[in-house]
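Local shape tokens

___
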Amino acid sequence: MSLHWFNPAVPVIRTNEAGVRVNVHNVEAASGELLKWTKRGPHWDRAVSVCMAALADLATPQEARRCFRLAAKEEGVLLPDTGD
């Protein structure tokens, strides 16, 4: 199974490890991070749907990246990056 890569990675603070910064590089990692979050608002719902679609090759990794960034912002864990 090949990974579905983001370009560039999305920097977030890991919610279950205080102060730990991670760069999420692919849909698979984004899906794992999403499951750890607690707010689960509308952007979270959309990100989960689009990540699942990307894993089934029904959406692009870049679409999943965009939705993941919005969900990370909604969750309050998005860090500034130079890619956008």
Notes: The mean pLDDT is 91. DSSP finds three helices and two strands in the chain. Strands lie at 5-13, 21-26. The CA atoms of residues 47 and 68 lie 5 Å apart.
